[in-house]
């Protein structure tokens, strides 16, 4: 490794290597460990700025995160219920949303002071599942703009660095989707808790869009939107993949960390859970991707603690906790 006076790292091995669409995550992390040195720099690209103060933490080397961001394109869409919509959407755009390649805000009605997409007037085939309508809209207008298409609710905080790390081991050319896996008690339908995130591959979006219009499972008049989405994906050939880390811990948190720590999740949720949730910190991956139940106030707080607070004397070490794909 050579370090220039301008503060830039010069190392050809820091480029992400790719084989058949899947990055070798272990190699990326090993290179990062070898090169971890303090670097002080202010970032001019607005999308990479630290979002509270405008500065990155001065001793962080973010080369790996930047490389993953350049290599893995993610379109994010967010369903907004309308409650405190102005503050909630503003918080999303100012925190995690700025790290998406594109952000779309969906609603079911018009809001004068907020730029949103009213799905009831979006010109896509109607479904009682807002998730199905959202993905139909995304396919119609943005299918070539990303490798992965991530949907969630407005009270979810997303660590985009961890999402891209997870996706680095996946192939966007395979029709698959990921999230916190649930199943109906009778075993008839597998689905994800879409409140805290559903990540769909480019191939999955294509297969879904081409085959969903005339499938009963994709157009039923039922209110259970995420269950309908799971049934629709299954019928159209989009596979539900495993999103836990190699230690079996969840990356998509359906409840606030305080609830997860106490193991006090809802009874219905535990009956439908497919990830064998443990109590306490062992239920949550160190590379958690999403956290549920975050109002705009808490989003700014999470952003601050993730990117601005460092315990003195502890050296950060990256871990390879991805499960090999396939």
Automatic annotation (TrEMBL):
Protein's UniProt keywords contain Transmembrane: yes
Keywords, comma-separated and alphabetical: Membrane, Signal-anchor, Transmembrane, Transmembrane helix
GO molecular function per UniProt: glycoprotein-N-acetylgalactosamine 3-beta-galactosyltransferase activity
Domain of life: Eukaryota
InterPro entries hit by this protein: C1GALT1/C1GALT1_chp1 (IPR026050)
Transmembrane domains' residue ranges: 286-307
Transmembrane is among the record's keywords: yes
Localization terms from the record: Membrane
Coiled-coil region(s): none
Membrane topology: Single-pass type II membrane protein
A single cellular component GO annotation: membrane
Family, as annotated: Belongs to the glycosyltransferase 31 family. Beta3-Gal-T subfamily.
Name under which the protein is recorded: Uncharacterized protein
Organism placement in taxonomy: Eukaryota, Metazoa, Spiralia, Lophotrochozoa, Mollusca
């Amino acid at each position: 490794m050579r370090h220039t006076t301008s503060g830039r790292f010069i190392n050809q091995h820091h480029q992400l290597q790719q084989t058949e669409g899947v990055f070798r995550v272990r190699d990326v992390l090993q290179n990062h460990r070898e090169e971890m040195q303090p670097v002080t720099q202010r970032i001019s690209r607005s999308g990479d700025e630290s979002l509270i103060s405008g500065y990155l933490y001065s001793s962080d080397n973010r080369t790996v995160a930047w490389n993953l961001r350049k290599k893995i394109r993610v379109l994010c869409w967010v369903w907004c219920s309308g409650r405190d919509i102005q503050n909630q959407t503003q918080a999303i755009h100012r925190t995690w949303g700025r790290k998406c390649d594109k952000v779309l805000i969906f609603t079911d009605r018009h809001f004068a002071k907020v730029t949103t997409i009213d799905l009831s007037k979006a010109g896509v085939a109607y479904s009682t599942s807002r998730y199905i309508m959202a993905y139909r809209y995304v396919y119609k207008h943005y299918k070539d703009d990303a490798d992965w298409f991530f949907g969630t609710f407005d009270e979810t905080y997303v660590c985009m660095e961890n999402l891209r790390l997870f996706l680095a081991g996946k192939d966007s050319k395979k029709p698959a989707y990921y999230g916190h896996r649930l199943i109906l008690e009778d075993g008839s339908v597998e689905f994800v808790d879409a409140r805290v995130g559903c990540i769909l591959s480019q191939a999955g979006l294509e297969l879904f869009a081409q085959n969903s219009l005339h499938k009963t499972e994709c157009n039923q008049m039922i209110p259970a939107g995420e269950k309908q989405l799971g049934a629709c994906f299954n019928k159209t050939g989009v596979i539900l993949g495993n999103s836990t880390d190699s230690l079996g811990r969840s990356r998509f948190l359906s409840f606030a960390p305080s609830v997860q720590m106490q193991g006090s999740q809802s009874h219905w949720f535990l009956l439908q859970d497919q990830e064998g949730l443990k109590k306490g910190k062992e239920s949550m991956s160190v590379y958690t991707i999403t956290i549920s139940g975050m109002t705009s106030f808490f989003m700014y707080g999470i952003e601050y603690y993730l990117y601005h607070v460092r315990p003195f004397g502890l050296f950060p070490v990256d871990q390879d906790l991805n499960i090999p794909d396939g």
